[in-house]
Amino acid sequence: GLFLEKGDGTPAPWDPPKKLVVQGPYRYVRNPMITSVLVNLFAEAIYFHSWPLLIWMAIFFLANAIYFPLFEEKGLEARFGADYVKYKNNVPRWLPRLSPWSPDGVDSARSA
Known about the structure:
Largest sheet: none
Order of helices and strands: HHHHH
C-alpha cells in the first residue's frame, strides 16, 4: 500500500510511516480507513434495519472523534511538524474534499 511504498512504513503502530503520505485517498480525507468503516457500518445498519449496528457506528465514531484529535494528530504533528499541520489545515478529518489537495498547491490531476 501507500504507507509501505511512499511512507517507508505501515499502518501498524510498531512500524509507522517515516514520511508523510499525501497521495491517493489521503489527498481527499485524512482518515480514509475510518471514514470507510463508518460508511460501511451506516450502509449495513440501513440495509439490515439494524439499530445495534447504528449504535455501534455512533460509538465507533465517538471513540475516534476523541482519540484522533487528542492522541493521533498530536503524534503526527510531533513526527512530521509543519508538513502535517499544513496538511491538517487543508484536508478534512472525516468528510472528503471534492477536489484532491496537493502540498505544493498544484493539482496533479489537472496538470497531467
